[in-house]
C-alpha cells in the first residue's frame, strides 16, 4: 500500500520531470547544452548511488559501462535500428555488470575500488586491441539527432532510473541492501543472499551507465577508446554523487546541478586553471561536506529539533 | 576579465595611439577552444596555442582586419576543453551564445573537431580545421558543408613514406627489406593498416612486423626484433612518447638502417633538441618547405612572439587556417559568418604553407607527407603536390 506521502512524492517527481522536459522550449541553446550535461550526470550519479549508496561499495566502473554503451551505438548503428541500440546497450551493460559482479563483489573495500578502476582500462585495451587487429580506427556516428532529442532521451532514462530506485527502495531487495550496508555479516546471518543482492543492484547501475553512453554517442559523433573510456568520468560521477549525498534517491541530483554550474563557471572564467580549481573543489567537498547536501540537511534538522526540545 | 587575452586589448590601445585615426576602431571576438589539460595538452601547447597567440599579435600589429572602411582588432577568448569532447561542445556553445563570438577557430585534434562540428554548423561558423585527420572526409563534408580540412589524410601520409623508400631503392641506397612497427592506438593503427598494403604493392618485403601499446616504457624488444630481421628500412607508425623511445633504443641497440622513419613528433623541435646531431637523416611524418622564405619568416616571428619554435608539421598549417579566416573576412568585405563561409568555399588562399584551395570534399589536396632532419632543420622530402621538396638522403648511423 502507498501512503499519502508517497503519492505526494510521486506527484512532485512527475511535476519536476514535466518541468525539466519543457527546458528546450523556454531556455536557449546554451541552457540546453548545460541541460544535457546535467541530465547525463543525473542518470550516472543517481544510478551509481543506487548501488554504492546502500552498500558503501565505491565503484569506479562508470566509464567502463559508459564506453561500452558508446561503442554499442558506434558499432551497431549502421546495422540496427537506432532505437534498438539503447536497450541493447543497457542489456550489455547489465550483462557485463553481472559478470564483473559475480567475480568481484565477494571482494570488499579497496580491492573492489581498484578492480572497478581497472575495468574501464581493461575494456579500453580490449577495444584498442580489436582495432589493432582489424586495422580500424575511430567510429563515426553521423545521425540527424540534435541536442533536444538527446536531452529528452536522457530525461526519460533519468525517470526510469528514479522509478527503479523508488521501487527497489520499497522492495525486499532494498531492505536487504540497507542491512548489507550496515553490517554485511549480520545480513548474511539473517539469511540474506548478499552476493545476489549486490550483483542485482550493480547490474541496474551498469545498465543505466551503458544506456547513457549509447544515447550520447551521436552527440560526440566520433568515437575512439581514449574519449569513450576516459577515467575522469568515473571520478566526476563519484564526486557529484558525494556532493549531493547518497542517502536519499534525490541526493545525487542535488549535487549534480550545483556542481555543473560550478564547473561551468570555472571553465568560463579560469581557462588556464580549470583542473587546479576543480581539484580544490573536490577537496573542499570531501572536507566540508563529507555527507553531502543530504547530510547537511539532516544535521540542520537534527539541530533544530534539539533546540525545540530544549526550549 | 582574465579569460580575455589582455595583450589583445593592450596592442589595440598601442596601435590606436600610433595609427592615423582615419578608420573607426572595432573589435572582433574570436573564440579559441583547445586542450590546456588532459592527454592532448602537450601537442596543443606546441602546435595550437602559440599560433593563436601569434596570429592575434600579427593581426593587431598590422592594424587589424580591414572590412570596408573599418579595421577590426581581434580579441581572443580562450577556453580549455580538457581533451574532453563534452567540454569542447560546451565551450563552443558558450562562445556562440554567451560570448557571441564573431568567429571561432577550429578546435584541436580529430575527435574534438568532429564533436564540435554540429555547433559550428548550426550557428553558421566557418570551420577550417588544422588538426583533423579523417578517412571519412567525404561523409563529413556532406554532413557539415562549412567544415574544411587542411592537414591531409593517413593514405597520403603513408603513401609518402612508400614513395620516399621507393626512390631510395631505385637510387640503389636501400634494398627491399622493411621492418614495420606501430603503436596500437588510434592514428598509429590507421597508418599501419593503410601503409602495409602500399609497401607490399611497391614490392617491399616486410621482414618484421609488430605493434606495442601506447605508453610502453620498454621498447627494446621492438627494436631488437627489428634489428634481428636485418632491415634496409625501419618504419614506425608511432606517437610522441614512443617516437622518442624508439629512436633512443635504436641508438642503444645499434639499429642503424639507411632509412629510419618515426611518425608523429619527429617534426617537433624537441626531437632535434633531444638527439642533436644523431637526428640527422631521420625521416618523419609531416614536413614543410623549410627553405622557403614564407616559412622562415613565419618561424622567426613565431619564436620572437611566443618564445618557442614552431614544429615542422602542424604548426604552419594551423597558422594557415587562421590566415584563411582573416583573408576570407577581408575578401568577403563583411563580418557576416555566412558571407565569409561562402567566400572560403569559392576562393583559394595564399598562406604560410603556400597556396591553398579545396577539392570536391572541402579538403586541401596538397600537403606534406614526409620530412627529414637535414642540417638541424626538418625539411619536407615528399608531399602530395607542394613545392620545395628536397631529396631524401640515406642515413649514416647515429654519430
UniProtKB/TrEMBL annotation, chain B:
Domain of life: Bacteria
Keywords: Amino-acid transport, Signal, Transport
Gene3D superfamilies: 3.40.50.2300
Gene Ontology biological process terms, A to Z: amino acid transport
Pfam families: Peripla_BP_6
Signal peptide positions (record): 1-24
Keyword Transport: yes
Matches recorded under CDD domains: PBP1_ABC_ligand_binding-like
Residue stretches making up the Leucine-binding protein domain: 27-375
Family: Belongs to the leucine-binding protein family.
Stored PANTHER family: ABC TRANSPORTER SUBSTRATE-BINDING PROTEIN (PTHR30483:SF37), LEUCINE-SPECIFIC-BINDING PROTEIN (PTHR30483)
Name the UniProt record assigns to this protein: ABC transporter substrate-binding protein
Amino acid at each position: 500500500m502507498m501512503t499519502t506521502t508517497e503519492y505526494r512524492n510521486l506527484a512532485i517527481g512527475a511535476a519536476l520531470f514535466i518541468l525539466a522536459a519543457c527546458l528546450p522550449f523556454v531556455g536557449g541553446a546554451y541552457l540546453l547544452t548545460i541541460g544535457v550535461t546535467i541530465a547525463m550526470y543525473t542518470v550516472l550519479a543517481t544510478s551509481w548511488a543506487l548501488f554504492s549508496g546502500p552498500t558503501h561499495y565505491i565503484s569506479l566502473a562508470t566509464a567502463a559501462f559508459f564506453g561500452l554503451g558508446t561503442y554499442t551505438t558506434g558499432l551497431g548503428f549502421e546495422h540496427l535500428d537506432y532505437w534498438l541500440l539503447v536497450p541493447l546497450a543497457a542489456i550489455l551493460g547489465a550483462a557485463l555488470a553481472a559478470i564483473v559482479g559475480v567475480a568481484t563483489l565477494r571482494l570488499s573495500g579497496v580491492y573492489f575500488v581498484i578492480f572497478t578502476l581497472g575495468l574501464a582500462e581493461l575494456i579500453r585495451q580490449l577495444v584498442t586491441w580489436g582495432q589493432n587487429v582489424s586495422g580500424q580506427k575511430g567510429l563515426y556516428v553521423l545521425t540527424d539527432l540534435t541536442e533536444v532529442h538527446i536531452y529528452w532521451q536522457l530525461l526519460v532514462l533519468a525517470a526510469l532510473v528514479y522509478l527503479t530506485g523508488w521501487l527497489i527502495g520499497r522492495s525486499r531487495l532494498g531492505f536487504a541492501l540497507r542491512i548489507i550496508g550496515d553490517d554485511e555479516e549480520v545480513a548474511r546471518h539473517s539469511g540474506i543472499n548478499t552476493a545476489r543482492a549486490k550483483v542485482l543492484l550493480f547490474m541496474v547501475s551498469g545498465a543505466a551507465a551503458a544506456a547513457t553512453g549509447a544515447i550520447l554517442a551521436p552527440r560526440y559523433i566520433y568515437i575512439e577508446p581514449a574519449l569513450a573510456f576516459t577515467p575522469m568520468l568515473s571520478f566526476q560521477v563519484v564526486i557529484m554523487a558525494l556532493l549531493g549525498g547518497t542517502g536519499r534517491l534525490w541526493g545525487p541530483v542535488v549535487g549534480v546541478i550545483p556542481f555543473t554550474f560550478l564547473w561551468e563557471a570555472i571553465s568560463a572564467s579560469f581557462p588556464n586553471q580549470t583542473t587546479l580549481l576543480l581539484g580544490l573543489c573536490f577537496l573542499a567537498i570531501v572536507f566540508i561536506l563529507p555527507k553531502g547536501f543530504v547530510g547537511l540537511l539532516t544535521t540542520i534538522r537534527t539541530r533544530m529539533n534539539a533546540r525545540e526540545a530544549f526550549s | 576579465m582574465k579569460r580575455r587575452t589582455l595583450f589583445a586589448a593592450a596592442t589595440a590601445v598601442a596601435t590606436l595611439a600610433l595609427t592615423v585615426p582615419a578608420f573607426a576602431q572595432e573589435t572582433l571576438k574570436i573564440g579559441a577552444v583547445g586542450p590546456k589539460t588532459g592527454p592532448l595538452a602537450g601537442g596543443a601547447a606546441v602546435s595550437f596555442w602559440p599560433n593563436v597567440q601569434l596570429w592575434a599579435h600579427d593581426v593587431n600589429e598590422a592594424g587589424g582586419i580591414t572590412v570596408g572602411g573599418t579595421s577590426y582588432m581581434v580579441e581572443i577568448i580562450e577556453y580549455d576543453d580538457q581533451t574532453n569532447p563534452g567540454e569542447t561542445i560546451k565551450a563552443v556553445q558558450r562562445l556562440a551564445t554567451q560570448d557571441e563570438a564573431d568567429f571561432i577557430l577550429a578546435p584541436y585534434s580529430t575527435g574534438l573537431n568532429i564533436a564540435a562540428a554540429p555547433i559550428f554548423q548550426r550557428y553558421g561558423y566557418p570551420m577550417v580545421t588544422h588538426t583533423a585527420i579523417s578517412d571519412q572526409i567525404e561523409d563529413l563534408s556532406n554532413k557539415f558543408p562549412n567544415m574544411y580540412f587542411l592537414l591531409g589524410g593517413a593514405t597520403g601520409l603513408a603513401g609518402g613514406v612508400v614513395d620516399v623508400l621507393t626512390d631510395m631503392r631505385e637510387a640503389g641506397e636501400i634494398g627491399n627489406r622493411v621492418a614495420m612497427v606501430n603503436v596500437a592506438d588510434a592514428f598509429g593503427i590507421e597508418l599501419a593498416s593503410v601503409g602495409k598494403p602500399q609497401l607490399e604493392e611497391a614490392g617491399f618485403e616486410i621482414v618484421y612486423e609488430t605493434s606495442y601499446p601506447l605508453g610502453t616504457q620498454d621498447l627494446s624488444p621492438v627494436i631488437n626484433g627489428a634489428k634481428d630481421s636485418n632491415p634496409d628500412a625501419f618504419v614506425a607508425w608511432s606517437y610522441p612518447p614512443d617516437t622518442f623511445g624508439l629512436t633512443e633504443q635504436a641508438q642503444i641497440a645499434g639499429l642503424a638502417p639507411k632509412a629510419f622513419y618515426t611518425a608523429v613528433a619527429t617534426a617537433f623541435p624537441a626531437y632535434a633538441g633531444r638527439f642533436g646531431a644523431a637526428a640527422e637523416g631521420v625521416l618523419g611524418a609531416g614536413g614543410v618547405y623549410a627553405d622557403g622564405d614564407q616559412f622562415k619568416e613565419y618561424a622567426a616571428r613565431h619564436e620572437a612572439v611566443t618564445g618557442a619554435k614552431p614544429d615542422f608539421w602542424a604548426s604552419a598549417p594551423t597558422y594557415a587556417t587562421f590566415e584563411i579566416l582573416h583573408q576570407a573576412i577581408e575578401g568577403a568585405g563583411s563580418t557576416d559568418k555566412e558571407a565569409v563561409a561562402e567566400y572560403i568555399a569559392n576562393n583559394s588562399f595564399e598562406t604560410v604553407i603556400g597556396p591553398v584551395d579545396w577539392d570536391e570534399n572541402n579538403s586541401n589536396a596538397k600537403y606534406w607527407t614526409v620530412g627529414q632532419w637535414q642540417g638541424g632543420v626538418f625539411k619536407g622530402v615528399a608531399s602530395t603536390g607542394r613545392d620545395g621538396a628536397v631529396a631524401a638522403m640515406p642515413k649514416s648511423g647515429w654519430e
